[in-house]
């Protein structure tokens, strides 16, 4: 049983007009075998939270802690976080021309597992995982994310999660830009990995739609750089009906301090 | 012989290659060269430094050459002395022509088989893995150049039966003088440039290949070259003739041990591809980082012929090399695939030249360069379409990748079109390794060095996939070595 703990996290980014605070004291705890949905309007800082946990150099943590089983994640380099068991499925996966997907996956698995997977098992493992996500085997020889459609990129993010077997996965708007069929396939992939592991999931989304496919134990409404309200799955139902208006109103009062 | 030949060399006391380099030393000497040992220098000690008529006469007489070759050498020497140093491209001021040995004979006669080689030479080649390559039957024949003369040479019997000639150039001149009188200097005359003149005056060794009409050599012919005597210039001369409708792929890999004073490598490669023939010439150059690598390479492609240069430049202090194709017959095709890698203190000035001299000719230049650690890469290319070469097509694509902010890349494309009905395309990009690419790969567990090497490997992949398998693997290993400690 593992725990990912986020305490009073403050994060800023550099803008043309100086540093701008995006996260303003996030508190959140996710345990193994739990799925937490983080829901919020555009610009609320959801993706900043995802990138900050993974350690993107663009984001500067000014205050607070991120702990993985008590270990200080913020002290770790990006690759150390991955090897410690954190995974980020990105909203906009990056293209790496000339590097085949199969080479990339094997290098990543070797890095996170600490040794190169045995070729025979590995081939079987990759083929199985690709078939679960209905990915054409020909993609293995294509360059990483190059020329992939939005849906193909998202499937490959989930494929990487299934192969790298993280303790905690942050899925950053994995549902955005997907049609119903693609959403179903991607969700199935996530659910299968949940079923066969103890993964804790932070599911970042704008819409409630994905929660019909992936059930969340907890729902957090994220507004203006912090968690505005937490609750059970019923909170998502309320958002479905009423939108974020109630929470945006609550956030208005603190808006003056935030530059537009 | 002058007495200056006997002077001791300051480098002798500081020869690297001792295995116990610390991590810092390894990183400091980036591009640190894995074959940086050298064998006890026997042949080099008595060789003379400096160049004059006596040296040229001595080389020619030691080789029992016909008089016309001696006269060609002497005329070339005269041309070399008259021509000024090039004032463009790289800084060549570090070359001291008086401190170079122009001829070193390492063994008296050529060995017929591996077992006949002297022990120190065998040891050298063992470290390069040549016998393994032989055993694996990856090569059709190995002509290994040790110092100035080819000492080991083997060609598979079936090639001989097909009439394919593959030997060192000195032997070629002795055994096939009629081919040399017809073709030697016909594509690159001695007076082409200062360094082709130098090569023509003092050339020694190199490969000579003749492929008869219609013969398709279906395994690559390979040669390995090494410089083993400090300050020794290597002036090999390669001549390849591909007769009508014939095909050959020649592969040349260069490696050199590290010395602390400068070395000069100035080769000339001439290729004639006759009607309907095809030739591919692949080089991965990995000279140690003190070598001036100034090579003239040019091919003539006749009607319907295809010439392909695949050219990798990784090592050396300075490389100036622009493989060229003269498209002399209708429907001839020329292609250059070039990859250059510059680390600290290195300048790779590389590119290509395509000269369209007949209608319906086409050329393609694809150049990829990577600079890091303050290294500099330049693409320098010429596409010329002469009057009458109508319906010609040319595509140039050069991409440069900068790994850090202290390195430099320049593009010097020259286009000279004298015919109306031609199609030209030119694309050039300079990019930096993006923070997002690094982050993406590192977020999957790769270290920064691994991520950087993966991005660079991907960048040069379009060239690497054109290489024979073992060369592609070597290229990847070299990139990994070069990228160690590249970041941060």
TrEMBL record, chain A:
One of its GO terms (molecular function) is ATP binding. This is Iron-regulated ABC transporter ATPase subunit SufC. The keyword ATP-binding applies. Residues 4-249 form the ABC transporter domain. It comes from Actinomycetospora cinnamomea. NCBIfam families: sufC. Belongs to the ABC transporter superfamily. Ycf16 family. The keyword Ribosomal protein does not apply. Keywords: ATP-binding, Nucleotide-binding. It comes from the Bacteria.
From TrEMBL, chain B:
Residues 1-12 have a biased composition (Polar residues). One of its GO terms (biological process) is iron-sulfur cluster assembly. Residues 1-20 are annotated as: Disordered. Residues 159-222 form the SUF system FeS cluster assembly SufBD N-terminal domain. It comes from the Bacteria. Residues 225-459 form the SUF system FeS cluster assembly SufBD core domain. This is Iron-regulated ABC transporter membrane component SufB.
